[in-house]
Design goal:
Elements (H helix, E strand, L loop, with lengths): L2 H7 L3 H25 L6 H20 L4 H19 L7
Length: 93
């Protein structure tokens, strides 16, 4: 392998890491912002589980060949799970 191939091998690494960072951090921020706009309190479970679920679903949809219908099903599943989690109330201390 020549030096030219080594330089090209990791050419998109920085862009990949920035895309992953933007994709993973966007959903927790959007969930938090939406719940704050609705003046909801005690939504830590929604943020934690919703962020983890977004990471899993997003990774699955991006890394595998999922059809358009499959992607929509995953997004509906995400919305349903987050909607149910938003109903959970954490007891106040």
């Amino acid at each position: 392998m020549s030096a030219d191939h080594g330089d090209v091998m990791f050419a998109g690494s920085a862009q990949l890491m920035l895309a992953v960072l933007a994709g993973v951090t966007a959903m927790p921020v959007l969930l938090w912002t939406g719940m704050r706009a609705l003046r909801e309190q005690g939504n830590h479970l929604l943020l934690t589980v919703g962020s983890g679920l977004w990471f899993v679903i997003g990774g699955h949809v991006v890394e595998t060949n999922v059809s358009t219908v499959g992607t929509e099903v995953f997004l509906v599943l995400f919305a349903l799970v987050c909607g149910l989690l938003s109903l959970v109330r954490v007891p106040k201390r």
